[in-house]
What does this fold into?
Amino acid sequence: MQDKTINKYIKYILFGSILLGITYMFFSGRITRERLKAKGVYKLGIISDIRNGKNGALHTCSYIYHGESFTTKFTAAGLGLQKGNLIFINFLPSDPKVRNPLYETKVPPCLTLESSPEEGWKKLPLDTCK
It folds into this structure.
């Protein structure tokens, strides 16, 4: 009888821990997105590697901020991204490792890595190539 009670409490503790973990992941992701929206800047990154996997292609993208190189990885399927393509990266200037690759946002063809300001853009640049 006592074993059943202990097993019951273990299940409750396990379920509560899983629920707490999921809640934490949800809110920490939301907080990060809000911080990026409020204080983030945009720079161009270049796709340096693509590896095919079960859940789509794993893309590695590099970007430079104040002379330091950073990388980010993301999976994307069906977007036709290729090695050498440019994408926008939204990141925090105070911590460039906190980032969000905007691989679904098209980069205007007249923008280059060299034309990307050192401090980044406060807002995504408009397509002024036309």
Notes: The mean pLDDT is 85. Helices lie at 2-39.
